[in-house]
Amino acid sequence: MAGNTFGQIFRVTTWGESHGTAIGATIDGCPAGIPLGPEEIQKDLERRRPGKGGATSPRQEPDKVEILSGIFEGLTTGTPLTLVIYNKDAHSKSYDHLKDIFRPGHGDFSYFCKYGIRDHRGGGRASARETAARVAAGAVARKLLQFQGIKVMAYTLALGGIMAENFELEALAENRLCCPDNDAAAKMEARIAEVRKEGDTLGGIVEITASGCPAGLGEPVFNKLDADLAGALMSIGAVKGVEIGSGFSASLMKGSENNDALTPEGFSSNNSGGILAGISNGDAIVSRVAVKPIPSIGKPQKTVNLDNEAVEVKIGGRHDIAAIPRIIPVCEAMVCLTLADHLLRQQAGELIPDTDE
Predict the structure, then answer these.
(1) CA dist 191 → 76, 99, 164, 322 (Å)
(2) I need a surface site. Which of 89, 139, 231, 261 has the fewest CB within 10 A?
């Protein structure tokens, strides 16, 4: 199976399955000398961890990370950094009845068409469980970015059709949906309770901002910073759309409205989302993702089995009502990984001597 490695210099390979022994990540290209301990990685994993109620799955995974290599006396050594998270609460028998059935909205059918085999236990490699490895690796990238003064933060803009109308930074810690609008968060919670009773699920929108990013990251043609960010965020299973800056709203504007005027103090607006011509311009990098509803629902659905016979399936087991808020640290992780990789690419380019001299 190809496609398990992300990045060019800060390279991350994730491995493992939802109901396997463990999941994890190997980072190659992390600079030496960065202070790092498992407790720093654990902070981000706690935000993604299942079993905390609300819209999330009751699966009780401790998600305790162990660092197997790449650390000596609390510092990264520049050698491959291997992170492992052991699965402790996988109930594989809950999926026995799905062994020969393709679940609607999941990757069951497409995986089987590609490989001729699939791990039906929680989706195997396609499970959202894989994102814990991304979050662990993203925490390392976040530490690297902190040395450059770059801060990445994400929050809930919408859930179940309810939009946040205000932005109060302190509200992010005051409700479990990480929404900047407490009134909207209360309505979202009520919507979650309503949909849970129906045996259904919800989608939403997450916004991710990166502040303190220097100008000059990214390439002007291929490997544009916004293109790589979009690809990174789209690699998250539940994400079905990405926009940068004004995004789709730009299609409704005039050029005079969408252009960000430059002043001696900086840009007067940020419709570009901090990226012009594929290169960061020093302003805040702003992206948003559309998160689809969780496909595992308690309502009967029509599908087919391995013999292409029409059947009806009702998904049991332990599943989230919405990927939000657990997807928030995953989105942050993918932005951190992208920026860390581009930052190291830029620094490597600066070391190349001018051959014309």
Answers:
(1) 45, 32, 14, 11
(2) 261
- Report the share of the chain in percent with pLDDT over 70: 91
Could you read off the pLDDT of 158-189 as tens digits, one per residue? 999 999 999 999 999 999 999 999 999 999 99
Whether the Cβ atoms of residue 178 and residue 226 lie closer than 8 Å to each other = no
Q: What is the mean pLDDT of residues 283-303?
A: 95
Low-confidence winner among 86-100, 209-223, 321-335 (lowest mean pLDDT): 86-100
**Residue entry with tokens 């929680």:** 122
Q: Which residues contact 257 (CB under 8 A, 6 or more apart)?
A: none
CA–CA dist 52, 328 (Å, integer): 15
Query: Do the beta carbons of residue 266 and residue 282 sit within 8 Å?
Result: yes
Sequence-distant contacts of 110-117: CB under 8 A, at least 24 apart? 112/306, 115/1
Distance in angstroms (rounded) separating the CA atoms of residues 57 and 6? 28
pLDDT digits (tens, 9 = 90+) for 88-133: 865 556 667 788 899 999 989 998 999 898 887 767 788 889 999 9
- What is the rounded CA–CA span in Å between residue 310 and residue 307? 9
Q: What are phi and psi of 307, to 5 degrees?
A: -90, 10
Strands 22-28 and 65-69, bridge-based pairing: unpaired
Structural domains in the chain, sorted by start: 5-350 (3.60.150.10)
Residue 240: φ, ψ to 5°: -120, 0
More confident position, 203 or 18: 203
∠ Cα 79 237 196 (to 5°): 130
